[in-house]
């Protein structure tokens, strides 16, 4: 199982080495801004690296919203990120499920997702797997609770999309982690990436504050159980820099190792 971390984008391979990570995830542009990603000088190194690369789309991307001043640039920015992520050999582009505004019909968010994926397909496709991530907050989110995720997947499942399961978001979003992998796979058929994070906040708080795997309100063994069941690459998006994340990676490796039978 490949285990890595979300890192600073300046020199992701050095960050991977500092964490003994098999994989890295990073942003290609300001996560709160609309600027398109720029070509990277280290593209050849990233493509050739042993380390698996994942890209996280900016947080502001919301292809579901009814606000067309956000929805239209979101579509374009998502596609621009897919192209830039493909250029560095990324294995996937993670994007949050998004939400519609209070009072708006959640079905419109799903239809907007379909249009965004149709737009991408008409533009030549993404070029790499786009992984929709569950989110912690919002009453009108497309991928906070599994009932909403099921309605979304009914419509977009025919497109080339994957799923990224974030354990902090699931817990804070109000989904029990016990048995979660099976419940998600019954909807999506797949989990392509796990974001293994503990949560500083309570179950169903709707808040998105990650903690180190042995901190927070989630029983650490439950995180290990989710990671084991998902059997997908793992990224920790936890605090504490290289030291904190190195500890989280070591914790997962230690607990995922095949148990030695006492014969
Ligand atoms: Zn995440």
Automatic annotation (TrEMBL):
It comes from Micromonospora craniellae. This is Deoxyribonuclease IV. PANTHER family: APURINIC-APYRIMIDINIC ENDONUCLEASE, ENDONUCLEASE IV ENDODEOXYRIBONUCLEASE IV. Signal peptide: none annotated. Its cofactor is Zn(2+). Gene3D superfamilies: Divalent-metal-dependent TIM barrel enzymes. It is an enzyme of class 3 (hydrolase). One of its GO terms (molecular function) is zinc ion binding.
């Amino acid at each position: 199982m490949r285990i890595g971390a979300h890192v600073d984008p300046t020199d992701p391979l050095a960050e991977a080495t500092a964490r003994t990570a098999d994989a890295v995830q990073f942003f290609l542009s300001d996560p709160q801004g609309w600027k398109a990603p720029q070509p990277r000088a280290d593209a050849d190194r990233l493509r050739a690296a042993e380390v698996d690369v994942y890209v996280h789309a900016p947080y502001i991307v919301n292809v579901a919203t009814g606000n067309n001043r956000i929805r239209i640039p979101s579509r374009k920015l998502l596609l621009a990120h897919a192209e830039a992520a493909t250029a560095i050999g990324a294995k996937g582009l993670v994007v949050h499920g998004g939400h519609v505004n209070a009072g708006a019909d959640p079905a419109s968010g799903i239809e907007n997702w379909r249009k965004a994926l149709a737009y991408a397909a008409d533009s030549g496709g993404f070029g790499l797997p786009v992984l929709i991530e569950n989110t912690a907050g919002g009453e009108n989110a497309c991928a906070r609770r599994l009932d909403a995720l099921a309605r979304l997947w009914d419509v977009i499942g025919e497109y080339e999309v994957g799923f990224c399961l974030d354990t902090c978001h699931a817990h804070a979003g109000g989904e029990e982690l016990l048995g979660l992998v099976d419940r998600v796979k019954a909807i999506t058929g797949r989990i392509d990436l796990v974001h293994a994070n503990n949560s500083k906040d309570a179950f169903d708080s709707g808040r998105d504050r990650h903690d180190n795997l042995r901190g927070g309100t989630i029983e650490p063994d439950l995180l290990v159980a989710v990671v084991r069941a998902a059997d997908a690459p793992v990224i920790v998006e936890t605090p504490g820099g290289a030291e904190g994340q190195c500890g989280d990676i070591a914790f997962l490796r230690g607990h995922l190792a095949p148990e030695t039978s006492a014969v």
